[in-house]
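User: For my dataset I need records formatted as: sequence, then structure tokens, nothing else. Please produce one.
Assistant:
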Amino acid sequence: QVQLVESGGGLVQAGDSLRLSCVASGRTFISYTMGWFRQAPGKEREFVAGTSRSNGITYYADSVKGRFTISRDNAKNTVYLQMNSLKPEDTAVYYCAKSTLLLPKNTYHYDYWGQGTQVTVSS
């Protein structure tokens, strides 16, 4: 019954910034761990960043550490992904997902997914 809707994707130049948003339905958003994943053509879906249901602790994939920032606004049932210093290799469909676990990084640890939003970074 949880629904997730991403927005904010687009076409940008290398070095630019972009902020993705994901709005979640339900009244227990504060109890969810929220994560961002991405999937490029021909590649497996990979973990990008998470914000834990344990006090909103954040954690990241090594490939985006220092460039991306995940945050959440529990009052608005929204999770964000601020992406700075974007690189062409960041090009992918980005997905928002929800988990009941504390610090999950695998796709199978997440039980609800959004439809995805395309991020394209040109060189």
